Amino acid sequence: MGDSMVRFGIIGVAKIAKKISRAIALAPNATLFAIGSRSIEKASNFAFDNGLSSEVKIYGSYEVVLDDPDVDVVYIPLPTSLHLRWAVLAAEKKKHVLIEKPVALSVVELDMILEACKVNGVQFMDGTMWMHSPRTAKMKEFLCDAKMFGQLKSVHSIYTFEVDSSFLANDIRTKPDLDGFGALGDIGWYCIRAILFAADFKLPKKVIAFPNPVLNESGVILSCGCSLFWDDGKLATFYCSFLEYMTQNMTVIGTNGTLHLTDFGIPYTEKELRFYTNSKYGFIEHVASSKPLPNIHIIPTDLPQEAHMVMEFSHLVKQIKENGSKPEEKWPTMSKKTQLVLDAVKASLDRGSEVVEVGQM
């Protein structure tokens, strides 16, 4: 654990923490320094179950991780209802903050987190892993190509997976006091981020939620959708659900071309990533076939997207620590714009699919 490595502490041993602990181990500029849970037993079990090094410190509380002077970064996979407290405290302890999504229960809470990070000069980033994939950078190149893609007209994203009865009864994403956004916050966040990514993070003007969302008996969203509208005529739709077969579609339509992928959140494979594009599409043989065929783009990578996220975050932290750089603002800006849309969608759902204006920055 040399000084050149950014030292991570994890508070909470949720299932996603397993993926991030592996990502930290794979990233060349990061190391897992400490694990904290509400008990030593839980933290120890996590370390054992995931084969962590004996050098990783095991703590029986979140506070001890934040108080450890050797921890540079705190990764927070806690329920959304706990994010405000622990993210603000981490920032006040001068720990850089990598936090799971949805980042907060409202943009008001998120603003409090971001202000704490800004005042204390620490980097903030949410855990939207696919944003850091080398595939995402290649997709952006296509979307910015005026000849091949043209002007953006619409975006459509779908993220669904079918859960079992145990998930519906016990998972924190179905509990109103823990993660009250349900499917909207968990996988709807990815859909909204995909739309904003395609729209170059220009916020829509208004949203209209689809009618008849599926809620559990506690009122938590199990499935919902929404339409988004911009003043210049662009539009987008998304749908997210815990109740249907695994689908991760993202389609971006321009005046000259289309981009499509079917695994935008979690790739089918870690080391060979794909997406498809069409330009100058047409029909031949009495609509029996199309011309030209879709272009298949294959992007090889040695690391999974979550390791790329850890690498990027660690690089920013090192720049702050060693060079006195200021925290990179684009990541908190992306989080806030996503939260603004999320809040508007939730408000539209709560109001029976009324039109809701999206808060602007």
How would you portray this structure in words?
The protein is of the alpha/beta class and 361 residues long. It has 2 domains: 6-128, NAD(P)-binding Rossmann-like Domain (Rossmann fold), CATH 3.40.50.720; 131-305 and 339-357, Dihydrodipicolinate Reductase, domain 2 (2-Layer Sandwich). It contains 11 helices and 18 strands. It has helices at residues 15-26, 40-49, 62-67, 83-92, 107-119, 134-143, 165-170, 183-186, 188-198, 305-323, 330-350, and strands spanning 6-11, 30-36, 57-59, 73-76, 96-99, 124-126, 152-160, 206-209, 214-215, 221-229, 235-241, 247-254, 257-261, 272-279, 282-284, 289-291, 295-300, 355-357. Strands 7, 8, 9, 10, 11, 12, 13, 14, 17 and 18 form a 10-stranded mixed β-sheet that branches. β2 (30-36), α2 (40-49) and β3 form a beta-alpha-beta unit. α4 runs parallel beside α5, α5 packs antiparallel against α11 and α9 (188-198) crosses α11. The longest helix has 21 residues, at 330-350. The protein is globular and about 60 Å long. The model has no long low-confidence stretch (mean pLDDT 95). Residues 143-259 form the GFO/IDH/MocA-like oxidoreductase domain. InterPro entries: Gfo/Idh/MocA-like_OxRdtase_N (IPR000683), GFO_IDH_MocA-like_dom (IPR055170), NAD(P)-bd_dom_sf (IPR036291). Belongs to the Gfo/Idh/MocA family. Pfam families: GFO_IDH_MocA (PF01408), GFO_IDH_MocA_C3 (PF22725). Residues 6-125 form the Gfo/Idh/MocA-like oxidoreductase N-terminal domain.
